[in-house]
């Protein structure tokens, strides 16, 4: 539905007209109709600049912006205004008009689009109901909480029945609970109204909650893109790995692991692969103890992603019945090595954290 093809945006450096900063460097993205598409990255990565090229608030220096098969890169005047009516936008700091009521704020885009007062009188209550503010029409922004202000922002953005909603850090100024409620509202709008959403965040937790697919940006470039689940489960770029590790906090402190005798493995299990039965099979087959040191399950959308940190070690002698013990040949080290191979063959992703 939205295609960005080789988009670059350069900004002139103030006082040095010949120099320029490449805020966005050869970015190509394809955002599909009906999805929630996330853009993550550190501050200054170029996320907002990319987002603003979609409605041409920022003109790309090179590259094309294609919406619904139509190349809109060079549109101006009325043609550009018509295109922008199809695209709503919400912001981190809400950008409301402080001296206007909630009603007038919500009506803003309708007035710009030249709707009649009768149409406005009908549409505004509808959208205020949609965002849960039907009783606040006559309030002023200063009388609202942050979450309510963002709801007004959302009402204003969807008033004209846009096909796309651009969201630039929509929850960064909100506390955790309010942020979760706003994300839920956005998801509802996406699902019930079929509006395609492009959402920027520097928080992977936000992405994890509502995005179908994600692009990761660093220094003006897209370093990685894929489904939200793939980005979390199998991050490729170093930068993404760090982001994901930081968010999921799946690691246990190194000094703890270093002081554990035995061989310590980290296993990721994705979806419904049953790693725990692989572990008990390994324990029995190779005569080892398998102790779980740490475990965690995360949900990305509807998919589960788990982590187990386990220790393989020799069983205490009295734990093995003599009849069984005879079946375990080889040194402990050899049996641990064979068990690691066995687990590797049967689990999604196995990492040896250390071997003693
Ligand atoms: N209007 C502008 N003039 C000059 N430089 C700009 C302008 N807008 C952005 N930049 C520069 O372009 C780069 C990318 O900025 P952008 O705002 O797109 O990053 P971002 O990823 O949205 O960051 P943040 O997470 O802090 O919002 C930065 O180096 C920024 O300083
Ligand atoms: Mg930004």
Strand order of the largest sheet: 6-7-8-3-9-10
The small-molecule ligands in this entry are: adenosine-5'-triphosphate, magnesium ion
Return the CATH topology of the largest domain.
Rossmann fold
Please estimate the helix content.
Answer: 25-40%
Gross morphology is elongated
Low-confidence stretches: none
Tell me the β content. 25-35%
What's the mean pLDDT score? 90
Helix/strand structural class: alpha/beta
Characterize the structure shown:
The structure is a single chain. With 356 residues, the chain is α/β, with parallel strands linked by helices. The protein folds into 2 domains: 2-247, P-loop containing nucleotide triphosphate hydrolases (Rossmann fold), CATH 3.40.50; 254-354, Alpha-Beta Plaits (2-Layer Sandwich). It has helices at residues 47-54, 77-85, 102-112, 117-130, 146-158, 176-193, 204-210, 228-233, 238-248, 254-258, 275-286, 322-325, 332-346; strands spanning 2-13, 16-31, 36-41, 62-67, 70-71, 87-90, 164-168, 196-201, 213-218, 221-227, 263-270, 288-300, 303-314, 349-354. The strands form 3 sheets. It has a 6-stranded mixed sheet, with helices on both faces. The chain has a 4-stranded antiparallel sheet with strand order 2-1-4-5, with helices on one face. α4 (117-130) crosses α5 (146-158). The termini are far apart. The model has no long low-confidence stretch (mean pLDDT 90). The chain binds adenosine-5'-triphosphate (ATP) and magnesium ion (MG).
């Amino acid at each position: 539905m939205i295609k960005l093809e080789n988009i670059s945006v350069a900004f002139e450096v103030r006082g040095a007209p010949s120099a320029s900063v490449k805020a966005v460097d050869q970015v190509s993205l394809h955002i599909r109709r009906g999805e929630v598409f996330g853009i993550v990255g550190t501050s200054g990565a170029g996320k907002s600049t990319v987002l603003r090229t979609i409605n041409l608030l920022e003109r790309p220096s090179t590259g094309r912006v294609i919406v619904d098969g139509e190349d809109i890169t060079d549109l101006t005047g009325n043609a550009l205004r018509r295109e922008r009516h199809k695209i709503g936008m919400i912001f981190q700091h809400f950008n409301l008009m402080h001296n206007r009521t909630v009603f007038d704020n919500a009506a803003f885009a309708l007035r710009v689009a030249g709707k009649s007062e009768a149409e406005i009188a009908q549409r505004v209550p509808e959208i205020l109901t949609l965002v849960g503010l039907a009783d606040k029409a006559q309030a002023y922004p200063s009388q609202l909480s942050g979450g309510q202000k963002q709801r007004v922002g959302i009402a204003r953005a969807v008033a004209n029945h846009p096909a796309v909603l651009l969201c630039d850090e929509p929850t960064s100024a909100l506390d955790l609970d309010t942020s979760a409620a706003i994300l839920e509202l956005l998801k509802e709008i996406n699902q019930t109204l079929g509006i395609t959403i492009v959402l920027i965040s520097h928080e992977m937790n936000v992405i994890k909650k509502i995005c179908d697919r994600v692009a990761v940006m660093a220094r003006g470039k897209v370093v990685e893109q894929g489904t939200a689940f793939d980005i979390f489960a199998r991050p490729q770029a170093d930068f993404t790995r760090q982001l994901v590790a930081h968010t999921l906090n799946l690691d246990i402190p190194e000094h703890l692991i270093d002081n554990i005798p035995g061989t310590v493995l980290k296993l990721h299990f994705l979806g419904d692969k049953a790693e725990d039965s692989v572990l008990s099979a390994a324990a029995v087959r190779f005569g080892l103890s398998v102790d779980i040191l740490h475990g965690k399950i995360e949900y990305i959308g509807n998919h589960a992603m788990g982590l187990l940190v386990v220790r393989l070690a020799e069983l205490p002698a009295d734990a093995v019945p003599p009849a069984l013990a005879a079946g375990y040949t080889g040194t402990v080290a050899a049996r641990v090595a064979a068990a690691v191979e066995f687990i590797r063959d049967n689990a999604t992703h196995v990492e040896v954290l250390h071997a003693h």
